[in-house]
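2024-03-11 09:14:02 DEBUG pipeline.ingest accepted 1 chain
2024-03-11 09:14:02 DEBUG pipeline.ingest length=281
2024-03-11 09:14:03 DEBUG pipeline.predict start
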Amino acid sequence: MKRLRIEHQTGFAYEGDVSASYNEARMLPGTTDSQFVLSSSIELEPQTSVNTYVDYFGTRVSVFDVLSPHRMLTITARSLVEVRPRPIEHTGITWDRLRAEAGRTIETVEQLTQSARTDPHPEVAEIARAIAARHDDPGPAAHDICMTIGDAVEYVYGVTGVHSTAAEAWEARKGVCQDIAHIAIGALRSVGIPARYVSGYLHPRENAEIGVAVKGESHAWVEWFAGEWTGFDPTNNAEIGDRHVLVGRGRDYNDVPPLRGVYAGPYKGKLDVRVTITREA
């Protein structure tokens, strides 16, 4: 188990006065069966009130408006979380039983439907079908599919954008964690395995020193349902460990962006995002 301190700061500098902005942030983790939030807060400059709620998928959302003229906006989310590993344990469920169970609840049914972001390239769907045919149980098949996608797509920043689709990233065979997660989710759904998008943070150092702050970033991975929900990080081809801090879940990135909003003011502005992660225990 690790104790991680996370600071996620997003700053906007506008070229003129912004008369008003309306925002929602998904930057604060919640307590789950594998992580415990010791403290969390969100700080705004200019100062304004913050309302919070838990959205449909169980993600903590901080909602705030800035209604006075401003040229800068800074959102700083801080949290301290204890995290334990979540090793993969296959349940031994059969394909027939999965089809029956996946159709019983909205939670799984809605994670079977492809979105514009996850709709797989025909090559990906064929790869997934071939892998699924080799496995009697969907759990090991899901694991194999995710590892195959992780091996096939190179992590390269700047090739894709925030609006890129899984099919576009597959054509390039390059992308970031968001793209690799979308490709894996599309592949899993194409063979009848419910899969969802997970957003959070990842400490970049496996053997991190205590008390040393390092540069981090938002991260994305997947969870599939094969009797129970199981997480996996296809970008790093790794199980979800005590370096992964979960913030939100959804059908794809559109359900869990760290920040979403609208504003009235100049079109152009400068964005600066910084994530710092410190292991404290």
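2024-03-11 09:14:41 DEBUG pipeline.report Residues 138-152 form the longest helix (15 residues).
2024-03-11 09:14:41 DEBUG pipeline.predict end
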